[in-house]
Write a structure and sequence with these properties.
Elements: E1 2-9, H1 19-33, E2 40-45, E3 48-53, H2 60-68, E4 73-82, H3 86-103, E5 108-115, H4 124-138, E6 143-144, E7 151-157, E8 161-164, E9 168-169, E10 181-185, H5 191-200, E11 205-212, H6 219-236, E12 238-245, H7 247-256, H8 262-281, E13 286-287, H9 300-307, E14 314-315, H10 323-332, H11 336-339, H12 346-349, H13 361-368, H14 374-382, E15 385-390, E16 393-395
Parallel strand pairs: 5-6, 5-7, 10-11, 10-13, 11-12, 13-14
Antiparallel strand pairs: 1-3, 1-4, 2-3, 4-8, 4-9, 7-8, 12-15, 15-16
Helix pairs in contact: 3-4, 5-6, 7-8, 8-9
Bound molecules: adenosine-5'-triphosphate and magnesium ion.
Length: 399
């Protein structure tokens, strides 16, 4: 008997001719996620991936958690790989059920069998029936319930056989690296980390850019964003965070432009810089955490004016979501607790009491021209600091 991990994936199976590319990427991403945990084989077979560690004392729980976070993975199961021999299958079925009942007070169960190996003399229903009987013999207080059992014992009879009872859901999506790269505008708030996560989940490699206005925003506010980027890199494999000094630009806008247009002009400057950095890194789109109507700068008119500062596509995956829906995801992906730490945002440093909620592009462009931003933008980009992360750890440089 060998304990292994069975990985299921869904969507990528639909991709026709691209399928091998996607599968290879997924297997590669799983391998990277498990880097440093010990020797293993990753085997792709019949629409599944099997992770087979070679070391005794392998940390299965940590490995399951890491694989579960790889985008493209629909579910993972700790599985016993055994010989395709009914006596062996019976023996291991009892072992698994015994271990399960030690920690759970299950009363009902069913056995589900798939037979891929048609040379095996018993058919699936017969295997399920026989195993059910063996389990009932050993645990007479259990009952079979085919509709809503407390647990299911899964048996797959192939070249080897696989037996397990646990299916741990992953996030689905597509393997990161199959859909190019995009640049996330990452603030210290709740929304933008969720937005980045959602796009990464579609297979897009994500880099991030953060604007900070020291000394108007503190070192701690920057640390918070670094922590959020670190958490995100746990999903996206690698992530570069570009930290742009934004103070001089904000001061210039604050001094030269009408007060009720400060926010929108500042947001346009952010977009312009993000697009330039995106271009220099090969990212093909921008990502923001905006959703329609959330605040003054996110009315449909404001979004349109902000959007016109750039030509690159801007992805706003939260556009139609309510705050509570965003918070639910933020909790699930572990960014929420960091996002709600108190901090000053550069957007709130110079903010009008009554910002324009229906800005008009031609007026904003005229106001914007009052500030001399060109040289300041070049300088800010030059002074940008890059911090790199790989799988939840800060590294010197991504190679
Ligand atoms: P968040 O919760 O992501 O901070 P928000 O609801 O506070 O969003 P805004 O402050 O209007 O909304 O920001 C809208 C979007 O602009 C953010 O989701 C983020 O993508 C981007 N953004 C705002 N501030 C910054 C910043 N300092 N650095 C980088 N991006 C920023
Ligand atoms: Mg914010």
């Amino acid at each position: 008997m060998e304990k292994i991990i069975l990985v299921r994936y869904g969507e990528i199976i639909l991709k026709g001719l691209n399928r091998p590319v996607f599968e290879e990427k997924l297997a590669g991403n799983i391998k990277k996620a498990l880097y440093g945990m010990g020797k293993l084989n990753i085997i792709r077979s019949q629409g599944r991936i099997y992770v087979e560690p070679h070391e005794s004392g392998y940390d299965y729980d940590t490995a399951l958690e890491k694989i579960r976070k790889v985008f493209g993975v629909v579910a993972v199961s700790p599985v016993y790989k055994i010989a395709t021999d009914f006596e062996v299958i019976k023996e291991n079925a009892l072992k698994i059920v015994g271990a399960l009942l030690e920690s759970k007070s299950h009363k009902t169960f069913k056995v589900e069998t798939k037979r891929g190996n048609k040379r095996f003399p018993m058919e699936s229903p017969e295997i399920s029936r026989e195993l059910g009987a063996v389990i009932l013999d050993a645990y007479p207080y259990l009952k079979v319930d085919v509709n809503k059992p407390d647990f299911i014992l899964y048996v797959e009879v192939r070249e080897s056989s696989y037996i397990y009872s646990e299916i741990i859901p992953g996030y689905g999506g597509m393997p990161v690296g199959t859909n190019g790269k995009a640049m996330l505008l990452l603030s210290g708030g709740i929304d933008s980390p969720v937005a980045g996560w959602m796009i990464a989940k579609r297979g897009v490699e994500v880099e991030a850019v953060h604007f900070y206005s020291y000394p108007y925003t503190s070192e701690r506010a920057k640390e918070k964003v670094i922590e959020l980027a670190r958490i995100l890199s746990g999903y996206s494999y690698r992530l570069n965070l570009h930290i742009v000094p934004f103070t001089d630009i904000q001061l210039e806008i604050n001094e030269k432009c009408p007060e009720d247009e400060l926010t929108i002009i500042m947001r346009r400057a952010m977009m312009v810089i993000a697009e330039r950095i995106a271009n220099s890194t090969g990212a093909l789109a921008l990502i923001t955490g905006e959703s329609v109507g959330q605040v003054a700068s996110q009315t449909i008119q404001s979004l349109a004016v902000t959007n016109s500062a750039v030509t690159m596509p801007v992805f706003r995956p939260l556009i139609g979501m309510d705050k509570n829906e965003v918070i639910e995801i933020a909790r699930k992906i572990d960014t929420f607790e960091t996002s709600i730490l108190p901090y000053e945002d550069c957007c709130t440093v110079f903010v009008a009491k009554h910002p324009k909620t229906r800005p008009q592009l031609d007026r904003i462009i005229r106001s914007e021209a009052l500030a001399d931003l060109g040289g300041l933008i070049d300088k800010a980009i030059e002074a940008t600091e890059v911090i790199s992360f790989v799988l939840g750890k800060q590294v010197e440089k991504i190679i």
